[in-house]
């Protein structure tokens, strides 16, 4: 009868379960060997599963026939994950040689073409036959969904991306090497700021307003009106040159001083694409937000937020003496469209008012502060309202901003314009050529404006999100009840000198801000953040610059003589390069 002896039992003096690490036999035998997790339910049929299927359905085995790979890979249930496969394997092999020059050669035969008509312009070099991109099973060329069309065109991001001009934009102002960067803020940080501001306090009013001509609300594409050239004088002085603001600053009315045009750009900064710059001057406890003259604030952008915005032609190569800039730039370039949009906005706001009574013009408490006695040209309909907004967060601090706001007309029969009732701001959207580069997929206004106005408005809200947001903020800051937007198109797409008014719409600024997803609280948070940042700095002149190619704003410190023509180091206006619509 065989003998039986009990195995050796190793007691754990530490009081825990299992053998102790001190008396474990052969404890140095497996030292520094990594441990791989396993499951008791796994069958130990093989040492390693070389046929494991990865997430992209590629077999990890090398040199095995495809039939064997497919057979062994299907043994595990679909969707089941091997125990411990999510952990970092210590047994993994890492290849250290450089394989950047490796490329996969596709030896599959290309499908035959189905006719020269489809092959022309849609070559097979972009990932398939030309006919398949047009017709095929999913009909993605014309009738399919946008996702199918994008997939069949080889996974490109958008339509005709290879024709887009990817030239980088130039900064709106020449950044001298002598400037020192103080702060850099990304747009995603600006979008998180919030500050609730109460209703403003009206200080004083200046200027004269004419009544808005309601007949323009009944204009349609069938009863279009020509846009007239109206010779009127309208001022747009910067903050520090405003005589009224100078008087208010002498009385310490507020801490920060700005105009509604400058303030709207800062409040809508996360939407901006084109570059801009704001001059910030700190004198004592006062802060002034100024603009350059001329500068980006004097321009009206066109399709700034479109996926393929209008572009300016690249400058001539200085190393090539034979290359010259075109004598006449394209009428659909970014700079030409900006000048055309400014021309249209001014003339439409001058034309859409009634200058000859009735109804009569309304004079504010004081005449226009910028119109001197030597001026002979007639003034445009414009009223200035100086208002103070309280940006204080706690009761102990006193941070107020004085803003010069503008209104363009008043609605007759609606309250008293002197008390802020029935005020109107007038703006204009322009159509240049729906088929040109930079049109942003806009429909033809003459065929869609009356029947599908919603589609036209949605396209403009997408392509001109920044411009419409700034107009809305300006109207809200001025306390306007309505914002009149005219739809103006060229008589001929190839002629940018003659235009017609196709329609006019009335929008309440507060309601339009909700449609555009414009948050006034976010805008005031941005203004307060920039104010706190500048008030912590010593007295001097600073420039807030929007990066021309990145969603970033930077604050630079400059000399007092910058932009005054008195500096000799190349920091002045004479050496500015680039424009806001490049």
UniProtKB/TrEMBL annotation:
Q: Where is the composition biased (Gly residues)?
A: 124-144
Write down the superkingdom of origin. Eukaryota
What residue intervals traverse the membrane?
none
Q: Where is this region: Disordered?
A: 1-23, 55-81, 113-163, 298-331, 563-582
Coiled-coil ranges from the UniProt annotation: none
What GO CC terms are in its UniProt record? Answer: eukaryotic 43S preinitiation complex; eukaryotic 48S preinitiation complex; eukaryotic translation initiation factor 3 complex
Question: In its keyword annotation, does this UniProt entry include Nuclease?
Answer: no
Does the record's keyword annotation contain Hydrolase?
Answer: no
Biased segments, Pro residues type: 310-319
Instruction: Indicate the secretion signal residues.
Output: none
- List the InterPro entries: eIF3d
Q: Where is the composition biased (Polar residues)?
A: 1-11, 55-72
Q: Where is the composition biased (Acidic residues)?
A: 565-582
What are the protein's UniProt keywords? Answer: Cytoplasm, Initiation factor, Protein biosynthesis, RNA-binding
Location in the cell:
Cytoplasm
Give the span(s) annotated as RNA gate: 296-310
**A Pfam family it matches:** eIF-3_zeta
One GO process term, biological-process aspect: formation of cytoplasmic translation initiation complex
Q: How does it assemble?
A: Component of the eukaryotic translation initiation factor 3 (eIF-3) complex.
Which PANTHER family does this chain map to? EUKARYOTIC TRANSLATION INITIATION FACTOR 3 SUBUNIT 7, EUKARYOTIC TRANSLATION INITIATION FACTOR 3 SUBUNIT D
Supply the domain comment: The RNA gate region regulates mRNA cap recognition to prevent promiscuous mRNA-binding before assembly of eif3d into the full eukaryotic translation initiation factor 3 (eIF-3) complex.
Function summary: mRNA cap-binding component of the eukaryotic translation initiation factor 3 (eIF-3) complex, which is involved in protein synthesis of a specialized repertoire of mRNAs and, together with other initiation factors, stimulates binding of mRNA and methionyl-tRNAi to the 40S ribosome. The eIF-3 complex specifically targets and initiates translation of a subset of mRNAs involved in cell proliferation. In the eIF-3 complex, eif3d specifically recognizes and binds the 7-methylguanosine cap of a subset of mRNAs.
Give the record's family classification. Belongs to the eIF-3 subunit D family.
The name of this protein is Eukaryotic translation initiation factor 3 subunit D
Q: Which organism is it from?
A: Dendrothele bispora (strain CBS 962.96)
């Amino acid at each position: 009868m065989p003998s039986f002896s009990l195995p050796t039992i190793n007691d754990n003096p530490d009081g825990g379960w299992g053998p102790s690490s001190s008396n474990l036999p052969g404890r140095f035998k497996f030292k520094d060997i990594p441990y791989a997790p396993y499951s008791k339910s796994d069958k130990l049929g093989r040492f390693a599963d070389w046929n494991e299927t990865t997430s992209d359905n590629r077999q990890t085995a090398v040199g095995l026939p495809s039939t064997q790979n497919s057979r062994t890979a299907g043994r595990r249930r679909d969707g089941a994950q091997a125990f411990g496969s999510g952990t970092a394997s210590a047994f993994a092999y890492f290849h250290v040689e450089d394989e950047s020059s490796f490329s996969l050669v596709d030896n599959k035969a290309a499908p035959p073409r189905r006719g020269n008509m489809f092959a022309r312009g849609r070559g097979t070099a972009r990932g398939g036959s030309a006919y398949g991109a047009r017709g095929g099973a999913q009909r993605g060329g014309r009738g399919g969904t946008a996702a199918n069309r994008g997939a069949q065109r080889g996974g490109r991001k958008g339509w005709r991306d290879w024709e887009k001009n990817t030239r980088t934009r130039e900064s709106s102002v020449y950044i001298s090497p002598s400037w020192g960067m103080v702060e850099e803020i990304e747009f995603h940080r600006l979008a998180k700021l919030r500050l609730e501001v109460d209703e403003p306090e009206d200080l004083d009013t200046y200027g004269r307003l004419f009544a808005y001509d309601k007949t323009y609300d009944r204009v349609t594409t069938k009863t279009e009106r020509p846009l007239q050239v109206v010779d009127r004088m309208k001022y747009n002085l910067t903050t520090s040159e405003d005589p009224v603001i100078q008087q208010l600053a002498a009385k310490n009315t507020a801490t920060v001083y700005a105009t509604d045009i400058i303030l709207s750009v800062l409040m809508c900064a996360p939407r901006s694409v084109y570059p801009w710059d704001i001059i910030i001057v700190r004198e004592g406890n006062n802060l002034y937000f100024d603009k350059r003259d001329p500068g980006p604030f004097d321009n009206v952008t066109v399709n700034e937020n479109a996926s393929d915005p209008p572009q300016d032609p690249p400058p001539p190569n200085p190393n090539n003496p034979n290359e010259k800039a075109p004598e006449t730039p394209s009428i659909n370039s970014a700079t030409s469209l900006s000048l055309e949009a400014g021309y249209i906005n001014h003339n439409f706001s001058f034309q859409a008012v009634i200058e000859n009574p009735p109804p009569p013009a309304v004079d504010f408490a004081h005449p226009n502060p910028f119109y001197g006695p030597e001026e002979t040209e007639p003034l445009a309909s414009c009223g200035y309202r100086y208002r103070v907004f309280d940006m204080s967060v706690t009761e102990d601090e006193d941070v107020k901003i004085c803003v010069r706001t503008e209104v363009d007309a008043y609605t007759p029969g609606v309250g008293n314009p002197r008390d802020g009732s029935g005020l109107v701001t007038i703006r204009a959207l322009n159509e240049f050529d729906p088929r040109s580069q930079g049109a942003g997929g806009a429909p033809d206004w003459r065929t869609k404006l009356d029947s599908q106005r919603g589609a036209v408005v949605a396209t403009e809200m997408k392509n001109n999100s920044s411009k419409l947001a700034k107009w809305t903020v300006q109207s809200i800051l001025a306390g306007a009840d309505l914002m009149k937007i005219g739809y103006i198109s060229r008589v001929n797409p190839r002629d940018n000198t003659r235009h017609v008014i196709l329609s006019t719409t009335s929008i309440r600024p507060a309601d339009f801000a909700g449609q555009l997803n414009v948050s006034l609280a976010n805008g005031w948070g941005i203004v307060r953040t920039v104010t706190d940042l500048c008030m912590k700095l010593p007295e001097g002149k600073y420039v807030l610059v929007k990066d021309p190619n990145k969603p970033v704003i930077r604050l630079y410190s400059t000399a007092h003589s910058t932009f005054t023509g008195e500096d000799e180091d190349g920091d002045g206006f004479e050496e500015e390069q680039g424009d806001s619509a490049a």
